[in-house]
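Q: Focus on the chain.
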Amino acid sequence: MAGIVHSVGKDVYEFSPGDRVAAFHRPGTSNGTFAEYSVAPDWTTFHLPHNISFEEGTTVPTAALTAAVALYVDMRLPAPYDLGKSREEKKKIPILIYGVSSAVGAFAAKLARLSGLGHM
């Protein structure tokens, strides 16, 4: 979802009324994204630059989550935040991302690069 902040909770300090934001609304919770007013956790919310439309901003959370689930849950590839061996010590894992020019594909490419995946 994306829009303008109307109000924030008492413990929220990163956002203020009037801010342009986008966020990931937790599925199955009340105050959904198609309502006039919606509620999202502050940790899934981010500031939206003025050159990005609300429509474009709404694609970011779902596309990023879809790419992350595909790489790190379904394919069980090493995530960029995994502890252990350094990037230099890890064996390079080649990866081919079909549809890399799509929103999900672009996030998958970015996450794969951050994870050290790619050509050898």
Remarks:
- The two ends are 38 Å apart (CA to CA).
- Residues 64 and 75 are 15 Å apart (CA to CA).
- The helical segments are 54-74, 103-114.
- The longest strand covers residues 20-23.
